[in-house]
């Protein structure tokens, strides 16, 4: 936790859980990406946390933006960043949203099939398109495989159609899976991208760009390599597969840009046991899957949790949220160790909550408000 967040929480009077994001950390993260991959443009993945203060800061630092919807495009334009700094990176778009984005000035679009190319050719004529290829997501705690991208063998056909329909066949994209712990996870996708560049050149079409997506981790309970290690591994793979003819490159960090910048303060609502011989305590917080901690789904993301009593002995607990829905359990398969002295009414601090918390909150399911958010 940063001193600024500590100070903010000391003075906060409102009730209920909240996330506090420190912009100084976001600024440091941006510089780490820019420094570790100096010839790569950064497109911040807006969905990770679209708070206007974060978008304004990143716009000021010179970042570009990966948007998934017209609403996200409008949020970025509201910062004053031009549409030339926006990529419409969702491969699943309504044609009228493509037309609206085009009207707003966006000229860079993701595709992963021929039908999407046809929509863009009709509603955003002349634009640049890049084709997303499938990645298996191995090594990632939050894989994004299957839903997005086509087999690498299919990409040349998709891009050739784009070229025939008057679009600029611009490049290849992929996402190695979110919270990717393996710094070499980019290598095989970069190999596929290079092969597609080669195939397209033989068809007389020069591709220019490789969009290497997100996947850069935040530090939760598990240790993770730092941004420089990712930068070095990616640069090694780029030169291995592209030699001295490196393509233009893009990265789209979401979690890696804002994850470690935010912290949630929550409260213990109840501590109980289910029977006299129950070996674990059930600890219920005022935050759960529906008001901020959706990424505990399948216990995929394991957040560090701090209390004022962490020097006391700890025993395993099932940790759950406050709603009347039995899926609202955070950690049960692998119980969470919490101090025996933890009591009802105690505050807990959940670290690395800057990404995928506010945007994954439901609108008052069971009457619990969406997560309150402060950006300082
Ligand atoms: C979600 C997403 C990202 C961000 O991924 P992180 O793992 O959070 O960095 C980047 N690009 C695309 C296309 C995405 O959908």
From TrEMBL:
<feature type="modified residue" description="N6-(pyridoxal phosphate)lysine">
    <location>
        <position position="47"/>
    </location>
</feature>
<comment type="similarity">
    <text>Belongs to the Orn/Lys/Arg decarboxylase class-II family.</text>
</comment>
<dbReference type="InterPro" id="IPR022644">
    <property type="entry name" value="De-COase2_N"/>
</dbReference>
<dbReference type="InterPro" id="IPR022653">
    <property type="entry name" value="De-COase2_pyr-phos_BS"/>
</dbReference>
<comment type="pathway">
    <text>Amine and polyamine biosynthesis; putrescine biosynthesis via L-ornithine pathway; putrescine from L-ornithine: step 1/1.</text>
</comment>
<dbReference type="GO" id="GO:0004586">
    <property type="term" value="F:ornithine decarboxylase activity"/>
</dbReference>
<dbReference type="GO" id="GO:0005737">
    <property type="term" value="C:cytoplasm"/>
</dbReference>
<dbReference type="Pfam" id="PF02784">
    <property type="entry name" value="Orn_Arg_deC_N"/>
</dbReference>
<feature type="active site" description="Proton donor">
    <location>
        <position position="324"/>
    </location>
</feature>
<keyword id="KW-0663">Pyridoxal phosphate</keyword>
<dbReference type="InterPro" id="IPR000183">
    <property type="entry name" value="Orn/DAP/Arg_de-COase"/>
</dbReference>
<dbReference type="InterPro" id="IPR002433">
    <property type="entry name" value="Orn_de-COase"/>
</dbReference>
<dbReference type="InterPro" id="IPR029066">
    <property type="entry name" value="PLP-binding_barrel"/>
</dbReference>
<keyword id="KW-0456">Lyase</keyword>
<protein>
    <recommendedName>
        <fullName>ornithine decarboxylase</fullName>
        <ecNumber>4.1.1.17</ecNumber>
    </recommendedName>
</protein>
<dbReference type="InterPro" id="IPR009006">
    <property type="entry name" value="Ala_racemase/Decarboxylase_C"/>
</dbReference>
<feature type="domain" description="Orn/DAP/Arg decarboxylase 2 N-terminal">
    <location>
        <begin position="25"/>
        <end position="258"/>
    </location>
</feature>
<dbReference type="GO" id="GO:0033387">
    <property type="term" value="P:putrescine biosynthetic process from arginine, via ornithine"/>
</dbReference>
